């Protein structure tokens, strides 16, 4: 066996023996204690509530249209019945489209959340990365997510350190 290959194997094994340092943080706790995050969440909640009220009002109007149609249908001709049914269906389809545009996966609420919250999350993740670099941490786990973290020793929890870096109490 060549000397170079032997040296590479020995260096590789010593690399395996080197333990990795780990830190555990609670991103949810950090975010919930940031004033700008709270303000963004409040703004998003108000926007969602306003839009939901508008959509609920539209559905109430559709319900009124349907009830009126049911009450009057015995007096209507076949073509008038069909026209009213078509109107109700079209209105419902329109409201469902509005609902999708506001609350759907690529809707206005999603985009507004991205606009307001993403810079705050980036700030936190940059602080985490800076902390990890500063303290030579190899792995950072978030115990607030469903990452599969079942148990952690509190000595590895560095949430308070990250909060201090961000000026949070």
Keyword list:
169 residues, mainly alpha, two-stranded parallel ribbon, 2 strands, 70% helix, disordered N terminus
Short account of what is shown:
The protein is mainly alpha-helical and 169 residues long.
Q: Give the radius of gyration.
A: 29 Å
Strand adjacency order, main sheet = 1-2
Enumerate how many helices there are, as a single number: 6
The helix-and-strand class reads mainly alpha
Report on the biggest sheet.
2 strands, parallel
Distance between the termini: 59 Å
Low-confidence residue ranges = 1-17
The averaged pLDDT comes out at 86
Identify the overall geometry. Answer: rod-shaped
Helix percentage range: over 70%
What's the number of extended β-strand segments? 2
Proportion of residues in extended strands: under 5%
- Give the SSE order as H and E letters: HEHHHHEH
Structure in words:
The chain has 169 residues and is mainly alpha-helical. Helix content is 70%, strand content 5%. It has helices at 3-17, 27-32, 35-72, 78-103, 108-134, 159-165; strands spanning 22-25, 139-142. Strands 1-2 form a two-stranded parallel sheet. The protein is rod-shaped.
